[in-house]
Every structure is written in C-alpha cells, then in structure tokens.
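Would you kindly consider the sequence and fold I have copied below?
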Amino acid sequence: FLDYLEEERHNSIRTRNARLAAIHSFSRYVALQCPPALLQAQQILAIPTKRFEKPLLGFLSVGEIQALLVAPSADTWFGQRDRLMLTILYNTGARVSELIGIRVADVNSEGAPSIRLHGKGRKQRTIPLWKETVVHVRRWQQQQNLRQDQPLVPNRHGRPMTRANVSERVALAVTTAKILCPQMRGRHITPHSIRHTTAMHLLQGGVDITVIALWLGHESTTTTHGYIEMDLAMKERALAAIRSPRTKRTRYHPSGALLTFLDGL
C-alpha cells in the first residue's frame, strides 16, 4: 500500500508517512483488542517512516506584502472585501480555516482593538489589531451594515467564504501584485505564505519566539523555531558576533587623552 502511494499515486513522502501513522495507530488498537493478531500488528508497527528533506518556509518581504495588500481594487465590493481579507491574514497570521470562521462579534474595535480566532481543537486566541486594520474593519462594517452573527469576510451571498474561494482570491491578488512587484514572479504564494510572512516579520522585529508561538496558535515553540532557520539576517548577526579561528585577537590600547581623563576622576 505504501509503495502504491508513492509509485502509482505519486504522493509525497510526507503523505506516505501520514498514512503510515494512521496504520500504526490502528495496529496498536488491534494488538490490544485481538491477541491472535499481535504478531502481524508488531510487524506493521516495525515499518519505519521515511526521511525527507524539509524545505525552508517561504515568506514575503515588507515591500512584497505591501504590494499584495493594495493589489485588489478599492473601487469594487470584491476588491474592498479582498483588501480586508489580506490585511486580516497579515495582521493575525490566521489560518484559512480561522479566517473564514471570524464573525463580526469576534472583533473588538474599541479600547484595545483585537480579534478572536477559533483555532484547531476548538481553541481560541485573541490577537491585537493594528490601527490600519481597525480602520479597514470599521469602514467595512459601516458600509455593509453587518450583523453580529454574520461572517466578517463573506462571499457574494453573505455566507462564509470557502477555503477554495480564499485561495482563488489570494491567487488573483498575487497575479496583480506581480505587476507592481516583479521579484514576486515565479514564486508560489498561497494564503499560508502570508502566515509565514507574519511570523517572519514579528521575528525580525525582535518579538520573542514564545510570543510568536502564541500569536500563531502553535502548541509548541518547536514548530515556531522553523522561522529562525529562514531568517538569514539573524544568522548573519550571529556570524558577526563570533570570530574566525584565524583572526588574531588584538589588545585594546587607550589613548593618552583617555588616560588623562580617567586619572582626573
């Protein structure tokens, strides 16, 4: 079955390992519930997962994300909706499932503006909103006269957008943004790329890795550490902080003026 997945269906090694994990889980259940099948269950559990190269996560620069945010037309209903959608994705780092689950009642635009996201496993988290995002949200709510129980980012029929719909609108915005920002050409940019971009910009802004994990809804900072691998600037700063083994260490020699000043203290 595993060979069939790779050779016939051309699934990736990740998909193959995910299917194997499900089979392992079932085999452990069989081993407990059906002792005569214990040997066969143990043989299945002995099948190892395959190693694979983990690609670096892709993200957009500040200039690229700005080009993407202004790509939808501000003169149409769809363009205004898409601008709000992209702004929320970038501000919150939300998953698509979290974006389409946002209701008007989840937005708090008074006092300390924030938005409540409904994440994996029915877990909720609250993300602060930038002033620009609050302006977008307030303008949108006033124009559309939305009720508290309605989706904040609806489709043309007033119902929640689908995953496919969000991906399609992001792809359309990316196509337009590539005209404004040619360096984006030839890259595969998805809604999840915006989530990676949020994390990277927070990291580059000096935000602690544990805060970023909470921002993104990661259960463990292990997942968030992947963004450190992406940050070449951080690695360059680390390189600058250490010396090459061949570099001769020099001793500091204060100037005569400095010594005179210190003697007079």
Remarks:
- The chain has 14 helices and three strands.
- The chain has a mean pLDDT of 87.
